[in-house]
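Milestone 3.1: sequence recovery, worked example.
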């Protein structure tokens, strides 16, 4: 919205600052942070009253969760979505189609997660609605978003998959690019959802990934920087740095309330939305595989679940004491804070490796 003040820069020179993505990204960070700080406490109070017993706790999870986390309200993702949406609408160029695609995925996945959280609370059970229906809707949203992303770019690059660490190694997938986009977006949403199991565990890696992809989006959308780094130029993708900034700011605000011991959980409302947003951004800026590096922690958590289920079905034995991976370390006796901080460190290292792909080509 504020971007349109650029049109008045001939009369008021100061308005020219709204032309710069870096300035508007900073504005988005502060706006999202302010919105979450402003509405967060009120939202927590309302959710605590309406939810009563709070988020249903898994009976097959770590025993201490039943005692320590019982009664904590969920759906904290609502404050994240409020901050991200407000900041994006205020600071982004709303004529940019990439902005609307990513925002649509974020809100759609947030709505899916909200309905799932609502059913869990209504039933008093950690199980929401049918996983098949839930996944089907996620895949449909991701397919539509991937199709529109593919139609925006120039063929054949718009339907190609770029390889990190290589200058010109791309594979033109044609219409099958939509399949890749679906896997990235839906996979990212569910991977963040699986990671969200301890206070502060998911939100910080999400912020790290958002900051990383904010830089990637800015560089990919700038023809000069893209040429210098020998990465693929995606016209208009730089505007996604504003959404990444909004994710970072809203995440910082949420962490204030989610820091151990958490006053509120983000729930599926937040985890699905955040993961879907990261996936959609990665697809838009043509760095799908880099997301697997930057978000490697989410990948590890997902793989641990897949390995655990497959091993138990095939051999009757479990590889981990409990899945996802963070529960395995809980069962080994690690303190929650130790697990969380060490996983944060891993996320930082993976983000640095992901950024290294921009130059090591």
């Amino acid at each position: 919205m504020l971007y349109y003040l650029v049109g008045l820069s001939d009369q008021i020179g100061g308005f020219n600052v709204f032309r710069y993505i870096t300035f508007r990204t900073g504005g988005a960070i502060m706006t999202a942070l302010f919105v979450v700080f402003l509405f967060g406490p009120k939202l927590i109070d309302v959710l605590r009253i309406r939810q009563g017993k709070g988020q249903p706790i898994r009976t097959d999870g770590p025993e201490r969760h039943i005692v320590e986390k019982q009664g904590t309200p969920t759906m904290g993702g609502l404050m994240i979505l409020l901050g991200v949406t407000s900041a994006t609408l205020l600071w982004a160029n709303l004529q940019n189609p990439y902005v609307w695609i990513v925002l649509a995925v974020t809100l759609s996945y947030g709505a899916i997660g909200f309905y799932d959280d609502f059913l869990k609370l209504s039933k008093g059970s950690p199980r929401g609605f049918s996983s098949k229906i839930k996944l089907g809707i996620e895949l449909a949203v991701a397919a539509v978003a991937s199709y529109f992303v593919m139609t925006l770019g120039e063929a054949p690059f718009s339907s190609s998959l770029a390889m990190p660490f290589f200058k010109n190694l791309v594979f033109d997938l044609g219409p099958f690019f939509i399949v890749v986009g679906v896997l990235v977006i839906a996979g990212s949403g569910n991977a963040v959802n699986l990671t969200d199991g301890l206070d502060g565990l998911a939100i910080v890696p999400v912020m790290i990934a958002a900051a990383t992809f904010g830089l990637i989006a800015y560089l990919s959308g700038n023809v000069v920087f893209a040429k210098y780094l020998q990465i693929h130029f995606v016209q208009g993708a730089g505007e996604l740095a504003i959404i990444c900034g909004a994710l970072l700011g809203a995440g910082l605000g949420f962490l204030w309330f989610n820091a151990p011991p958490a006053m509120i959980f983000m729930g599926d409302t937040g985890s699905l939305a955040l993961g879907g947003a990261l996936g959609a951004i990665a697809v838009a800026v043509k760095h799908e595989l880099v997301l697997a590096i930057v978000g490697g922690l989410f990948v590890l958590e997902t793989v641990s679940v897949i390995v655990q289920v497959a091993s138990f079905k095939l051999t009757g034995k479990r590889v981990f004491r409990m899945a996802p991976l963070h529960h395995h370390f809980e069962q080994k006796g690690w303190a929650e804070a130790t697990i969380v901080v060490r996983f944060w460190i891993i996320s930082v290292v993976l983000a640095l490796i992901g950024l290294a792909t921009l130059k090591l080509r």
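The mean pLDDT is 91. Residues 23-356 form one domain.
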